[in-house]
Amino acid sequence: MSASNGPAPKRLAIIPARSGSKGVPDKNMQLVGGETLIARAVRVARETGLFDTILVSTDSPDYAEEARRAGAEAPFLRPADLAGDTAVVLDAIRHVLDELAVAGRAFDLFALLEPTSPLRSVAIVREVVAAAEAEGWDAAMAVSPVPSQMHPLKQLVVDAEGRTQRFVKQAAKVINRQELTPTYVHNGMCYAIRVPAFRETGAIFGTRARAIVVERPYVSIDTPEDLETARELIGAGPFR
Questions:
Q1: Same-domain status, 140 and 48
Q2: Is the torsion defined by CA of 209, 128, 24, 230 positive or negative?
């Protein structure tokens, strides 16, 4: 999958799993399809056959132990200031790369697999990594289409008194579905970025990122209702 005929790139999978979720307590340890969300993400990463190292970034010794049971590394815990409600995943990624660099472990590319997006597949991860390693690209990400009825040009904002106005102020008052340019959201199934591009830009998109459109359903688990939806979809469909 390397973009050149040189040595195979060194690839790292990072699975971020902080323990402080308030919407769903111990969210990353919840069972979906008979596996914890952590174990499910680790398994898919392993089944791709792509990664030299699969590492779970967590602040919890219990989560770290679950990561190791699933076949991943958890050689250090995330500092408390990178695990609170205001922590951003970019800082957690930098922490992982810096800790590994101190240990003399360098990588050409990392993939980020959010355990709270459990409907990913091996094929999706492989496609995203291949796209990020293709010549001319810094990064790639899995994205999902936004339903036309939720398009930004149809969205409203409501003030404290209940008055509404268009979120995009220049949008026409009446918009036909056929006139809408499709829009997408990143779904958390997989991001992949070349490490030099991440170091240079500090962004998970680098300067030139490619989207891999995923047509299958997706769920990003933030609430108990999201968790139940994920369980129902995995129980009913081909989402191993």
A1: yes
A2: positive
- Closest C-alpha to 51, from 143, 102, 113: 113
Tokens of 41: 């993400």
| Separation CA 206–CA 189 (nearest Å) | 18
Q: Is residue 4 part of a domain?
A: no
43: burial class by Cβ within 10 Å (0-12, 13-18, 19+)? middle
Q: Is 124 helix (H, G, I), strand (E, B) or coil?
A: helix
Say if CB 129 and CB 161 are below 8 A apart: no
Beta strand extents in 72-138 (DSSP E only): 109-112
Q: Kindly report the pTM of this predicted structure.
A: 0.90
Amino acid at 86: T
What is the domain range of residue 160? 147-181
Non-local (6+) Cβ contacts of 3 within 8 A are: 133, 134, 135
pLDDT per residue as tens digits for the range 67-114: 999 999 999 999 988 887 777 899 999 999 999 999 999 999 999 999
